[in-house]
Design brief:
This protein is α/β, with parallel strands linked by helices and about 375 residues long. It has 2 domains: about 1-245 and about 255-265, Alpha-Beta Barrel (TIM Barrel), CATH 3.20.20.105; about 270-370, no CATH class. It contains 15 helices and 16 strands. It has helices at about 45-50, 60-65, 70-75, 75-80, 95-100, 125-135, 155-180, 200-210, 225-235, 255-265, 275-280, 310-315, 320-325, 330-355, 360-370, and strands spanning about 1-10, 10-20, 25, 30, 55-60, 85-90, 105, 110-115, 120-125, 140, 185-190, 215-220, 245-250, 270, 280-285, 290. The strands form 4 sheets. An 8-stranded parallel β-sheet has the order 4-14-13-12-11-10-6-5. Strands 1-2-3 form a 3-stranded antiparallel β-sheet. It has a 3-stranded antiparallel β-sheet with strand order 7-8-9. Strand 15 and strand 16 form a beta hairpin. Its cofactor is Zn(2+).
Length: about 375
Amino acid sequence: MEFQIDKTDGNARACTIKTAHSTIQTPVFMPVGTVGSVKSLDAVDMSEMLGAQIILGNTYHLYLRPSDEVVKHFGGLHGFTKFPNSFLTDSGGFQAFSLSDISKADSNGIMFKSHIDGSTHYFTPEKVLDIQYNLNSDIMMILDDLVALPATKERIALSIKRTTDWAKRAITYHQEKQAQGIGKHQNIFAIIQGGTDKEFRHISANELCALPFDGFAIGGLSVGESNALMYETVEYTTPLMPKEKPRYLMGVGTPEDLVENVERGVDMFDCVMPTRNARNGSLFTSFGKISIKNAKFQKDESPLDPECDCFTCKHYSRGYLHHLFRAKELTYFRLASIHNLHYYLTLMKQMREAILKGEFKAFKAEFYRKRGK
């Protein structure tokens, strides 16, 4: 992987990442394709219509169905899905966290039961890398120990100890595999934990950033804490991360979250919000969110957002989308998801342009002005 900083504006960064499959310009939002598919959209929609440079797949879900061996049979995620650009695969640590009633972590890894058939499985730092070698993703996240917030100091301390121990095992294993010719074009990112406790974030960042990972993520946020506390934690953590490597904030978030955290030095984001909200009738616009299910849109001939040039806004009215949603037509999911993802991806491009021009502060002020904030 190649990484360069193109411009900074305050703490905000415009960077370029080159992987084996694509050139990624940051700040970047990664649409979530959990099981190798962004819900209701295909590879042509993602690459040609939306221009996504990278999407996220999930190790836990792909391991269970269709299995990493099946994906390998088709030539990895790129051959299986036909998406030509980069993939990042999450390790499954978040799924173990979110399925905590059917999973249990110990010092060696995470035992969990499949949410599909109840079968028992055990993820170790080495196991999740083996799965990701089969998936052939461009960026592999290592196994981490994530905790819900609020949490006791004892539980957070255990989380960062496990995360560091697993990171050391992961980087050693990855180096051994690359020496054997496996995963030579795959990159590996570590995940900084520590809740919202600055002391623990400092410990976790120092321990992990001393190891030769290709990039670093901030994990364990957007799991119950307030937005203000999340922003404060990111602002404290990003200066602890290497300037010369990508910075990724996992599972975040709203358009406001993206703007605030780009300002704090984050390069990469992912979240299910744009596609999940689309399916539920909540659509993002330059002036805020609208709920397309509202009766007031029944005879509205205007596009979702007059400032948007996505496929949906160029061809269809609010009234038609309101009808599709009310009629539970499957076409609605595609058109709404295209719009919301276009909004997110365009927002990232606009922030990049503002950083390159040294105008990020003015961009942020205009972003909020349009929302009446």
